[in-house]
């Protein structure tokens, strides 16, 4: 089974002006529980600055979120940000390319 809904939210311009950058990966509508989340910047796995919530169950479906917080300098260095979600034997990706936006 795959994650029904997977979205990746880039940092806001307000946050970037404060000197840091947080990306949020939102997963919802999946079953059974047991989703694993990992983050990649330019195809290299990142473990520092990752905060993943515990899974929440509602009506037999589960949801969870994960954030990746980077320094503004690190955010400016990277180009492709990926949230990789593994569930059972499948994996899904949500990818954000900075060139797609004009922050």
From TrEMBL:
It comes from the Eukaryota. Keywords: Disulfide bond, Immunoglobulin domain. It holds the Pfam family C1-set. SUPFAM superfamilies: Immunoglobulin (SSF48726). The keyword Zinc does not apply. Coiled coil: none annotated. InterPro entries: Ig-like_dom, Ig-like_dom_sf, Ig-like_fold, Ig/MHC_CS, Ig_C1-set, Immune_Resp_Modulators. PROSITE patterns: IG_LIKE, IG_MHC. Residues 4-94 form the Ig-like domain. This is Ig-like domain-containing protein.
């Amino acid at each position: 089974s795959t994650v029904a809904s997977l979205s990746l939210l880039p940092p806001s311009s307000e946050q970037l002006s404060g000197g840091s950058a947080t990306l949020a990966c939102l997963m919802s509508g999946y079953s059974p529980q047991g989703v694993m989340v990992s983050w990649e910047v330019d195809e290299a796995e990142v473990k520092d600055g990752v905060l993943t919530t515990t899974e929440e169950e509602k009506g037999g479906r589960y949801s969870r979120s994960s954030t990746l917080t980077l320094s503004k300098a690190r955010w400016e260095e990277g180009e492709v940000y990926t949230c990789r979600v593994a569930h059972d034997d499948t994996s899904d990706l949500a990818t954000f390319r900075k060139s797609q936006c004009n922050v």
